[in-house]
Amino acid sequence: MVDLSTQYQQIKQEVDAGIQEVIDTTQFINGTATKTFATALSNYLNVKHVIPCANGTDALQIALMALDLQEGDEIITIPFTFVATVEVVALLKLVPVFVDVDPDTFNIDVNAIEAKITPRTKAIIPVHLFGQSADMEKIMAIAAKHNIVVIEDNAQAIGCDYTFSDGTTKKTGTIGHIATTSFYPTKNLGAYGDGGALFTNDDELAKKVRIICDHGSAKKYYYDSIGVNSRLDSMQAAILNAKLKRLDTYNDKRQQAAALYDAQLANIPGIQIPVRAQNATHVFHQYTIRVAENRDALKEHLGALGIPAMIYYPVPLHMSDAYASYGYAAGDFPVSEKIAHEVLSLPMHTELDEEQIQFICQAIKSFITVPA
Length: 372
Ligand SMILES: *Cc1c(COP(=O)(O)O)cnc(C)c1O
Fold this sequence. Notes:
With 372 residues, the protein is an alpha/beta fold.
């Protein structure tokens, strides 16, 4: 699915030197590399505060903790996402309230949000799934009308540009009140271990987040609130410094690979190539097709030819055992349930070449014309 080894070979000198410097200076935690990275990322995104933390799941949890919510407060999000988005809501004894996704973009169906808002709704977590922005302009308008906080889960879309109807463009993760991301190795900006960050333009929220990340203390050994221990270690930051410089190039390569896939797969009956949102770029964290019939057999057929393919996500979260207590049932979110049976993510990374894509698409075509 990914080729991090070839990518590393091309930046080996810079990465190795960065790691060595961390060891030489023994600034393992909150060292210069971490500060340099936070500054570079805030410049890249054009956001006031970047607060690094240990991983993307922590980032989501910390964002929610910073909002001073009460047990039972409701958080709107989608059931068709990585579990972390919903897990942290449940862990904090908040209530996940699901809204179905749009069948084309797989992102939150903005027309279905308002019907789910109650006096207890405190936040919306749009997830920019697979590398494409949710419809942020509409989401921000709904949130403003109902006085709700927007937390963007930007783990899969770092570098994505969203354009508003007045023509202004912003990076995803800088539009909501606060945003989170992950530097998990396979993410578009991936470390060589765990990492994450929060972004915000709000000074008060930034201050709270920094305190929560450091055990709830602004001054060492004096505790203002109950916090967590969540830090980005300096070695990961050194690696991310080398990779952030190349993020746009990496995302371009993903887009080029996607265009090659598109050209090969556009007119195959029963295959739906990714649909581009009109108001956003797509940074292709995943290249995910919809297969109308026999998706699992196609996946097996590809596997037999040595081609990995993955199903993100096979079970919408409202149908997962862990979240059964929220009382949802099969049929509640028909789009999420349907696409869970149809999605198939093909290999997508910065080192894919035309020949590999040709081979993968040929394998898909041979299955479609001669079904198993
Ligand atoms: C990867 C991911 C996360 C969690 O990030 P970790 O660093 O693995 O904790 C959260 N949300 C989404 C949408 C993700 O893809």
